[in-house]
Records
---
Amino acid sequence: MACVVVVGTQWGDEGKGKVVDLLTEGVDGIVRFQGGNNAGHTLVVGGQKFILHLIPSGVLHPEKTCFIGNGVVVDPTVLLGEIDRLAERGVMVGPERLRISDRAHLIMPWHQALDLAREKAKGKDAIGTTGRGIGPCYEDKVARRGIRMADLVEEEILRAKLEEILPEKNFLLEKFLGDTPFTLEEIFEPYREMGQRLKPLVANVSLILEETTRRGGTILFEGAQGTHLDIDHGTYPFVTSSNPTAGGACMGAGVGPSAISGVLAVAKAYTTRVGAGPFPTECLDQVGEHLVREGVEYGATTGRRRRCGWLDTVILRYSARISGFTSMAVTKLDVLTGLPNLRICTAYRVRGQLTQDMPPVGYGLEDCEPVYEDWPGWQQPLREVRRWEDLPEAARRYIERMEALVGLPADLVSVGPQREQMIIRRAPWK
Ligand code: GDP
Ligand code: IMO
Ligand code: MG
């Protein structure tokens, strides 16, 4: 049995969607285990581009089943919209192709209103959330007052839950935000209807995953966001509200750690970040401009320009420790073509002290000065390259240095957005 977790190693947008789509061929099921529609995972297949926010990136393979695990927060309006948009493009998403955990929590309209209002109130100190209601929904889950998928599909339970929850939400909306409160009926009716549409897809996902692996089937766990956005291990408070690290897969899908045999780290060949928070290797010069332009670094969810900088192996080693990576998929190597000189951050200097580790935000991270190694660049375009030995020597040296500094092999090297633009050096599940 080979069940692999795919984890983002930086601040999200590493190209997880593309990697998951590619690896789907070798597995039976694909599970999202955390986050919600803050994620934007891009697939380019047969010249067509698909951006998925909630549905796992295996969905373009008709014979595979995708799962939304209990750890995901689901906005049913967004999910149904995504299902409808896929149907318009000929991808029919029924119960054979998608199952949603009955234990997944729902993002309700007040979660989004609170997310946006809190960001506005923070002004210049805002986190730069995606404004999708992710944080407030996880807050309600932990406070034991959330609404789950199982509640949505049972009319009477849904009504009772809303009766219990609405007075407090309306108090917050009216008295704290100065917003209009919701009436029970205006929420109940559309949510009841969405519940009935989604009912055939709702299932005990953990149980199905166990049945699949017992039969010898394999599962791919698709992380959203990235290690440094993890609520526990990321650059808190500039993080998301879930655990995108490998341990999150167990909690968020309902499997035990012994079910997992590999953890694939997805790392961009440079670094990007959307939203606020420290970013030691950020380049606010023509190098940053090159990376934005050549990498088309604009958010797949909010369209925001991504902040760009040099490869940082301090954050990658940190990520490797937290998730126990077994190998790497390095993406967007093609974007570095044309830069005469490349820099790799190997350590930080914090207040005069050399360190190999990341201090927390507020305790030195914002004062970190990256220590760089310089490496020669290359001029050749890489998008047509499919074999390791056909890469320019400088590109191979760059990846080999990255492997040595992180202590992991780069099994996959991606050289373009399309499914086939990938150098496969070793299958990560072997
Ligand atoms: P995810 O959130 O980790 O799935 O990543 P996103 O989809 O948000 O962002 C990655 C972007 O890079 C998308 O536009 C992909 O189509 C694109 N992409 C992925 N791999 C490569 C690659 O190797 N080269 C280039 N140029 N683009 C890539
Ligand atoms: P994928 O899966 C990049 C960032 C937001 C913000 C912080 C908190 O596509 O890699 P949230 O809305 O989650 O409360 O925002 O996290 N963020 C992401 N950045 N890629 C993502 O997902 C992200 N999801 C959240 O920009 O800084
Ligand atoms: Mg993304």
---
Amino acid sequence: MAKIPYTKIRNEQVTVTMEIKNTIDTLNGFLKAGQILFDVPMSEHTTFKTGGIADIMVLPGTGEEVAASLKVLTQHAIPFLVIGKGSNLIVRDGGFRGAVVKLSDSFARISVSHDTITAESGASLAELVHTAHAHGLAGMEYAGGIPGSVGGAVVMNAGAYGGEMKDHVDTVNILDKDFNILQMRAQELHFSYRSSALQKNGAIVLSSSFRLEKGDVQKAKERLNDLNRQRREKQPLQYPSAGSVFKRPAGHFAGTLIEQAGLKGFTIGGAQVSEKHTGFIINIGGASSSDILKLISHVQKRVFEHSGVALETEVKIAGED
Ligand code: FAD
């Protein structure tokens, strides 16, 4: 598609398609300098540290800005991808033709009222748990070491060490496909293992409220420290990754099946099945998304041949080859 010069807010020039120029002109009507970025390497926004260039990245600061931005993108037929911390995401090496809407630090306010803590989607889980403790609330320690955003965690029904989001979510404010902001109750979200209705209906999570208990915060902090120590001991946290790549198949552990198929340490390019935790694929240096995706396919094939179990990815895949 033909590209034309476009002057960015800080007077640098980039080339963009006519559609994107028109879209940016409209977004500039309500977003401030620094909330629209151009030619953004997705390797800087995914914990795998891989992925090509996104045409534009939008960083909304309020629910209204999320709604208005997505409406403009839709009206201009610009594809969009909403992300949080990119910790469960592979963006292919061709990048993303369209707009990545990142809900992160500028959309991360947390408030507490009685036993309820409410967080905008860009808040980190670590900050959520930390703030809960500061207000004498406990119960979500299992989530404190998951490196995702609150929005991404609710969509994924993230969990660990016997707890998951569905245990504590009370209400969620979402943006529906018609750009209405609605409140949904936990029971309407049909949470199941690493899944929720939000993955199917395309709703965007703006903020989430969690019901916690007044508890022994000292004990809760000790549990959090203990769980984080277990993560450091068992997970290859010194390498870029997206955590466990595959969902746990019924009656099995993905890591065990992978190890039994002889794939511990198996490497394609810069992507490796971790020796420390075979459920993790790690970027040992210079991996491309293509290396990771080839390794995922190889693992699925070999595990199926060896045990007859079809491994399903937990990690989400987006973008172009
Ligand atoms: P992203 O990766 O940014 O997005 C994930 C998906 O959610 C994408 O499809 C995206 O489009 C969508 N999405 C994101 N935000 C929104 C939103 N606001 N509204 C609608 N859709 C949205 N996960 C666990 O469950 N348990 C663990 O113990 C765990 N350990 C991990 C350890 C490591 C070292 C790493 C790197 C990852 C781990 N993960 C774990 C995976 C990951 O952290 C979680 O899935 C997390 O909840 C993803 O949040 P995110 O903000 O990074 O989402």
---
Amino acid sequence: MVKFSFSLPDDVVEVSRRLRAAGGEAYLVGGAVRDLLRGVPAGDFDLATNLLPEQTAKSFPSSVPTGIEHGTITVWLNDRCQGKGFEITTYRGEGTYSDGRHPDQVIFMSRIEDDLARRDFTINAMALNPLTLQLVDPFDGQKDLIARLIRAVGDPKVRFCEDGLRSMRAIRFATCLDFNIDANTLAAISETLHTVEKVSIERLRDEFLKLLTAEKPSRGIELMRTTGLLAIILPELLEGVDLHQNHFHMFDVYQHTLAATDAAEGRTARLAALFHDIAKPRTAQQKPDIPGEHTFYRHDSVGAALTDVILRRLKFSNDEREKIVGLVAHHMFWYDPAWSDGSVRRFVRRIGTENLDDIYELRRADIIARGKGEDPSIELEPLQQRVVNVLEQSRAMKITDLAVNGKDVMEVLRVAPSPRVGEVLEQLLERVLEDPSLNHRERLLSLISEYTTPNSKL
Ligand code: ATP
Ligand code: MG
């Protein structure tokens, strides 16, 4: 056992003291230990104890059995479940795994070493006693941390067959921490792909989303490709491998996508970058005049439809799916300083004011990922300035921003609710986008009154 000299948050020490006072042991486990040893702020402070959950609960004014079937309860030091709760899990081992996802039964254990043995990687299988600062490290996690290695606890093939998510986690940790994967652990990923297929898509998606927060997600996506995981989770990306584009681009479609994903900042823009050219392979056509060069007509709209299918398969929320699909659909704009203010407003309307920052970020990443050393601000800054200017003149960008509504249209035209009402509002908006000074109630009411026959123009 090694002793360390760093200080832990007071409440972590207090929770441990109470477990000790109740006659139990208390260890910090998992990511917190790894992060403390790396010298980075720890996320969650999870604790393990030999006490049973019902015994643990007695030492705290409030607790919730958040994962009681796995021996986990969440406790608070106050009586209202307020503020930070701590997950405390009884030492456990895991029986056999017959479904490649869940242990058949959870067995409580009396030694911390047995609890550490069920954990996935050596760097995640260390325990720290918060009261004595002693480290329990039976699998040499510290050594691997220094060597920057992801190594499975035990036989990687056996461990990945037990739970198919672990191979995806290996790549996620390697990518986020910028570590290598130990050779045996890496080889085991390709040999156990059949168990990955049994894992729920939500769990795989969540690991993939964590991978995308890495500084360079491309490294992880490439590891997924070479091990075979990409073919399971996002096979559409593989269609772009070796697909040469044209003289605007340094990279093939796949490498361009990876470079754009690395360059984009923020979850939404990153996901949009990952999907923006997803349909290029399916829309590619040889240029008859230049052998080897391709065009990709309608890859934006075909890509939006394909992104929709993929994000449904990956069970993204409707909101996030719609946002990303919209960004993919609209990524092919070509700003020209000759655009009228009306054109700039129509651009804003198409994109949606709430998506402007993401479309700029996507475009910035797309330009960088062409690999030609172009400066994205040359195109983006003038456009952003124009958008600021038109938004200052008027924020009316959608039907609901108009100074009249459907009821007004029905009253003035004496018509019942019908698609016609929407058409009139659309045309009024077109007029207002051209000339924001029209967006006053009286002006619009009089414009509506000119709209008497179905085919009359405003
Ligand atoms: P992060 O900082 O990303 O949350 P973490 O190490 O805390 O990293 P979690 O997914 O929160 O990761 O899991 C907490 C701990 O539980 C891990 O450190 C590991 O010891 C263990 N663990 C999690 N998932 C598995 C798994 N599928 N198989 C074995 N052990 C696991
Ligand atoms: Mg965690």
---
Amino acid sequence: MIKPCLAVIQIGDDPASNTYIKAKAKACDEIGIYFKHIKFTEETKEIEVINKIIELNNDEYVHGILLQLPLPDGFNADKLINYIARNKDVDGLTDINLGKLYNNKPCLISCTPQGIMKLLEHENIDLEGKNVTIVGRSNLVGKPLIGLMLNKNATVTVCHSKTENLSKHTKNADILVVAVGKKEFIKENMVKEDAVVIDVGINKEDNKLYGDVDFNKVKTKAKKITPVPGGVGPMTVAMLMTNVINAYQKQQKKSV
Ligand code: NAP
């Protein structure tokens, strides 16, 4: 029997990426997914990466393909990602999968936003009609999350670096999701009493990890809050495993 297989493509040697790839490899090992790590140097030509993606697309022994982000300067992440076959795009970042998500059609969903939705579901937090504020509009987190929240009938506000009077929007949130990448950026006075706060940020300082939310102060005000580390991060890895298994099962069905 063919075993599920995840292929991770890395370009360069970013230390944070090395850590994340190790965590993915460990999770795969724990649940019996074969893990393939393809590492290119920063000097690699774009065409070589494209050819590798095409080779993996056509390899029946590979069921999920992930391009580890961020890429070194000079590489176009959007272009490369869109070479990944949509049924192997376990990061849910191709235009096809993102478009399907916005149209509420079955697709592979980006892992971090999917993990956030699972956390909320697990805590029985009803989103219908609730004010959800998302701070950050990256393709990886903020943008897919808008679609997922809308599909659950939440009222969604999206903030970014050009947003004026940010606190006005964060204080209006029943559910506040922060994905900015700035240590303890959200302070207690920016959060509504009894809000649910989801901290996506991972900021390393003096070998310690911090979120985007001032956890110790905000936790006294929020109804629920995710810690960093140990909150959204492990959910992202769990959702990646789920996506690989789902992609594997669909591909196996097609091949019989
Ligand atoms: P990103 O691509 O750098 O996006 C950051 C977003 O924050 C942008 O939309 C930016 O606005 C916005 N922003 C920056 N400064 C702001 C300000 N002063 N006020 C309001 N918005 C501001 O980052 P990302 O990939 O989404 O990641 C965000 C954080 O989450 C990072 O710490 C990353 O390490 C972490 N992360 C964690 C996981 C996990 O599994 N836990 C997964 C992915 C990412 P503009 O669009 O206007 O530039």
